[in-house]
Amino acid sequence: MIDLGVSKLALIGAVALIVIGPEKLPRVARTMGTLLGKAQRYISDVKAEVSRSIELDELKKMKESVESAAKDVGHSIRENAADFEKSWNEATAGASKGLGDYGSELTEPPPEYRHPKKNWRLKQGTMPNWYKARTGMRTRALSGAARVARYRPKKYK
């Protein structure tokens, strides 16, 4: 990096004053400042983009490792499930022969689910808000302070 001290900056300023002139020096200095600011912002944007791409690559690698681990777990579960089903079939094959007529009780389907038709948050007998609004009924409850403020007599001037 360029080592700029106070003495070197003073020397550059003096040369710029002589070469550019005192009339154009403030405008040139402002232009140089804006260009330097734009360059710094561009460099910071590039650094941020590079860091984002690096993080994205790391996340992709992590995703691949998690997916491969999930596939391994799924494969092992399938193998264990197949082994379990074999052993279950072997165990139940001998048991179902010895049950006789009672084997049909194990094969009955479970009772069908019935919804209780209860919604504790909603009362079935309430009037709908559109009907209340149409008939001019109160649709919202007011607190005591709000009711006093609403129905307080207005002061005459």
Automatic annotation (TrEMBL):
GO cellular component: TAT protein transport complex
GO function term, MF aspect, one: protein transmembrane transporter activity
The entry's keywords: Cell inner membrane, Cell membrane, Membrane, Protein transport, Translocation, Transmembrane, Transmembrane helix, Transport
Topology term for the membrane: Single-pass membrane protein
Keyword Transmembrane helix: yes
GO biological process: protein transport by the Tat complex
Annotated compartments: Cell membrane; Membrane
Major place of residence: membrane
One Pfam short name: TatA_B_E
Renumbered residue ranges of the record's region Disordered: 95-126
Record note on quaternary structure: The Tat system comprises two distinct complexes: a TatABC complex, containing multiple copies of TatA, TatB and TatC subunits, and a separate TatA complex, containing only TatA subunits. Substrates initially bind to the TatABC complex, which probably triggers association of the separate TatA complex to form the active translocon.
Function: Part of the twin-arginine translocation (Tat) system that transports large folded proteins containing a characteristic twin-arginine motif in their signal peptide across membranes. Together with TatC, TatB is part of a receptor directly interacting with Tat signal peptides. TatB may form an oligomeric binding site that transiently accommodates folded Tat precursor proteins before their translocation.
HAMAP family: TatB
Family membership: Belongs to the TatB family.
Protein name as catalogued: Sec-independent protein translocase protein TatB
